[in-house]
Amino acid sequence: MNIEKKSLDRIRNINWFSSVGEPVHILDGLLISDPIMAAHELSQPSWEDTTLEASNSISSYISMKYPSIFQGWNNVAKEAKHFFDSEVSLNIPKLDGFDGELVIQCIGWDVVHYFIEDFYKDKISGGLFFNRLISIYETGHLPCGFDGEWPLGRVMIY
After folding, report:
1. What are the residues facing 155 on neighbouring strands?
2. CB 121: neighbour CB atoms within 10 A?
3. Most buried pick, 47, 52, 118, 125, via CB within 10 A?
């Protein structure tokens, strides 16, 4: 097993969406309290692009600096995807006004990349973007967009 138990337990213990729309104090976060606006931001290609850039930043750095350990990427990704599909996705409640399939896809992407980022955390320089997203989920909120150009800017939080 490539994923640490404490990381798996961290995801298992999230109380999904328990505080959406309520105030939150997260450094460099932008609260979106309107569910219509939050659902719109979540569906924007710019949010997908931001999370893709974050993932690509990790993979390009690891593949160039540590090619021998980069080979583990796919194994961690498969393990993470299996965990998400079998243990997490069924426990995520529906959000009124949101595309349920899109919500599951976004959270799945974030969780899988959190596990990958966590696996390589000792090798990555700079911030841990997906760890930050998981921290937002842990507060009962939903990261739903990005205000600015990644990596500079603020995560939008519903």
Report:
1. 29, 146
2. 12
3. 118
What averages of pLDDT result for each successive group of 10 residues across the chain (158 residues)?
Answer: 94 97 89 97 97 96 94 94 97 97 98 97 89 97 96 95
Q: In the structure, how many helices (H) and strands (E) does the chain have?
A: 7, 3
User: What is the token pair recorded at 140?
Assistant: 């009962």
Cβ(3)–Cβ(83) below 8 Å: yes
- Look-up: residue for tokens 């990644």? 150
Residue 7: which residues within 8 A CB-CB, separation 6 or more?
Answer: 114, 115, 118
Are the C-beta atoms of 146 and 44 separated by less than 8 Å? no
Residue 13, C-beta contacts closer than 8 angstroms, at least 6 positions apart: 138
Phi, psi of 156 (to 5 degrees): -80, 135
Instruction: Report pTM.
Output: 0.96
| DSSP-derived secondary structure letter, 88 | I
